[in-house]
Amino acid sequence: MASAIKFLHAADLHLDQPITGLADIPAHLKETLANAPYRAAERLFDIAISERVDFVLLAGDVVDLDQGGPRAAAFLLGQFERLADKGIEIYWCGGTVDQPDRWPNAIELPDNIVIFPSSMVEQAAHTRDSLTIATICGAGAETRKRNPSDFRCSEDSPFPIALLHGEIDTTTLAAQNIRYWALGGQHKRKVIDKTSTVAVFPGTTQSRNPQEPGGHGCTLVHVDAAGKIRVQEMELDSVRWSLQRVTVAENARLEDLKTSLADRCSKLRSEYSDQLVLAKWRISTTGDFNPQLRSSEWHKELVHWLRNEYGQSANSLWTVALKIDPPQQLPAEWYEEETILGDYLRSVGRFQGDASMALSMMDYVPENHAEDDFLTDLARVSAEARANVLQQAAVVGVEYLARHDNETIED
Description:
Layout: E1 5-10, H1 30-50, E2 55-58, H2 65-85, E3 89-93, E4 113-116, E5 122-128, E6 131-139, E7 160-165, E8 180-184, E9 190-193, E10 198-201, E11 217-223, E12 229-235, E13 239-249, H3 254-271, E14 276-286, H4 296-310, E15 317-324, H5 340-353, H6 373-379, H7 383-401
Parallel strand pairs: 1-2, 2-3, 3-4, 6-7, 7-8, 8-10, 13-14, 14-15
Antiparallel strand pairs: 1-11, 5-6, 9-10, 11-12
């Protein structure tokens, strides 16, 4: 009977990459943000020790030492030595930024580190009590897309594992004699279960920007004595991007908005008490259009209040942005007015009612930039974005052209 195995799989630590996406960074959060990639990595090695894993798999892009410098090298060396003291081996294949030949010759790695080259697939046998319990076929990143057939183990190899970074054809994984594919190169977690084999992109250990919301971490893999595989997501991030959606009535008062936001903030702080949450708020509305809801004064007041009330500690909830969606509809009588606003809304309405009318800003692109791909792409409006763009255009017209009784429209 085979032995049960437990190992940790991580990738894309990117110790050298800072968190981006904040227009301004408050002084009290700078240290938390700067240390976030290192804190996530430290938690990774903490788990390896606390779970008493047999080994750790690092699937590339751990660090670009040209950017990370001495701090990153010293940090990694210290963590590797922690695991060496516990008898835990680390199998590391290079990614696009951490090829084996880029590690400084002057810094000797501990004996528990096994590094795979990029030029070929090599095998390593992991032993416990002098018996091989897993066979690891590893290779670093290449410019070409890897072929699963490059990773071959004999039929009698104990629990075969493929370790690699980069693109691979996942449709043929089950045809290979590999039980677990330890993949790297994607920042979003992805699990591919092919019944006889499991492939995992664990994702980055710490998100870096608003396009990477939600939890991030590594994968703890359990293999029982019968060879059954169970993967467990382990969250490591100390800073988390979060898109929060809240719905309010168009006639909501400022205090009503604060109450709705306060309820959500309390839930978030309870759920993520040991993390810094970077929140982007999207507020949608119901009911008849209320211009004051979108006034600059209310916007400034809400952001200032959210940051002061919930964002003043290192592990807090910091509001990065707040946006109120366009209303579902404007009052029909506004479209009938014999005013500049009425003329404007009727023009927008013609585009809203006739999808065949082209919506493009190409006429506003200077002739000497007409061949500029970036500007021409920016000038075109996709079919998916058309309705939202037109609704926002209508709202902008109201904000700048309307002056209705008992309503304050802020420029």
